[in-house]
């Protein structure tokens, strides 16, 4: 149901844009989140956007650098990542939660994409 894309290799200070395609007819019913998992670490919350697109929330580590958005007409959610740092290196996952409220815990999400690798070189 979820297909993430857009990862790659970028130098520190650079930008990448991740996209996640949602397969289904009730996209606006789902809050959409991005998480990431670095090697040897647990999966962590990055950003989330409400189903209606009118509310967002970010992890402190990415606030001011990353922007989450959604296109309800195209059934996609995006993560614009600017001023990337080596510590942003991870596999990034999009996730869907069939609820209106924002959530930051992995077990609060119902569906997960396959992940896309982001590597930031110093």
What does this structure look like?
The chain is globular, with a radius of gyration of 13 Å. β4 (31-37) and β5 form a beta hairpin. Strands 2, 4, 5, 6, 9, 10 and 11 form a 7-stranded mixed β-sheet that branches. The chain has a 4-stranded antiparallel β-sheet with strand order 1-3-8-7, with no helix packed on it. By secondary structure, the protein is an all-beta fold. It has strands at 2-5, 8-11, 16-22, 31-37, 44-49, 56-58, 66-71, 76-81, 90-97, 111-112, 116-121.
List keywords for this structure.
122 residues, mainly beta, seven-stranded mixed sheet, 0% helix
Structural class: mainly beta
What overall form do the CA principal axes indicate?
A: globular
> What is the count of β-strands?
11
Biggest β-sheet description = 7 strands, mixed
Unreliable spans: none
Computed over alpha carbons, the radius of gyration is 13 Å
The topology string of helices and strands comes to EEEEEEEEEEE
Average pLDDT number: 95
Total of DSSP H or I helical runs spanning 4+ residues: 0
Strand content: over 45%
Distance between termini?
A: 34 Å
Approximate helicity band: under 10%
